[in-house]
């Protein structure tokens, strides 16, 4: 290569290198500039506010002997592990109804199951822990022990400071009290009754025994206090019947005519149908005749496959706009030999799960049924009067 060409190449290389240096220096200077490293301010994406309040309603919490036995460790009882998997489900709702189906007076009155129930106070701890914030305590087992046991049950719930508890009372004034709470700007009243008890109540005030006069007086008081939405809990129905009896239908219509917006029923220990009723004023009332069981140790598939009602309440119109049902399965480990011997206290590892997670547990159970059979039964029962969609936990 001659000198002239070498000169041209040298000049060209000098120009290229200078350009690269200038570009690199500019980028480096920009990266070292504190202002250039500030994050870009973009508008904060606020979560979209829902136009409804979600109410989830669970069925019977029953302290059977086998449940108590499995919960006991030394001198203490812990029921929380049995229902832990329901906690994230329940927490999806602002309103979470639960039915305390048996007396919870504490160990001082003796821990016992069927037929005369009484659970330790840690049973209430488990109910609160899973999310219960609206609780019925009136049931056929409310008077299984004494007024002192009822008093202890009442005090234990008062200390939890949840939205509303009703059904049992420590004095006459409490019996007449209507329980109110406000959620998402809506004022609610919660009423709770049982239509019978297995033994005579120890006092005239200890248990909210249902009568039309009592219910209508409390409903009237609620209306006079500006309540927008009335919930009534009813212990009624025929045990282990998936059908609705005449008395349930009559009293449901009475409650609808008087302005109750939502009736939550329990007592049969199995799921019963859902029905829309129209009151005398044209208002709509949703009646869930029986929510079935939640935490318990019963035997029949119909008692073990139940679920959680999902109810959406529009914040503007204060009406129910959507309903659904999340099926659940109550499992326990029990060998074929133990089942054949009816060794009820041998049952272990109680676990309540959603039906979507139940397949491996049902497969090892002693139940002569399938998830498909139980899903079909639940769907058929629910849709007797009103269409109800079966949900998964992701639908909530």
Total helical elements = 13
CATH topology: Purple Acid Phosphatase, chain A, domain 2
Strand content: 15-25%
C-alpha end-to-end distance: 80 Å
What is the CATH H-level superfamily?
A: Metallo-dependent phosphatases
Q: What's the pLDDT, averaged over the residues?
A: 91
Q: Which class best fits the helix and strand makeup?
A: alpha/beta
Tell me the major beta sheet: 9 strands, mixed
What would CATH call the class?
A: Alpha Beta
Runs in which pLDDT lies below 50 for 5 or more consecutive residues are 1-47
Q: Provide the gyration radius in Å.
A: 30 Å
Structural domains: how many: 1
Based on Cα principal axes, name the global outline.
globular
CATH architectural category: 4-Layer Sandwich
Order of SSEs, N→C? HEHEEHHEHEHEHEEHEHEEEEHEEHEHHE
Secondary structure: helix percent: 25-40%
Number of strand elements: 17
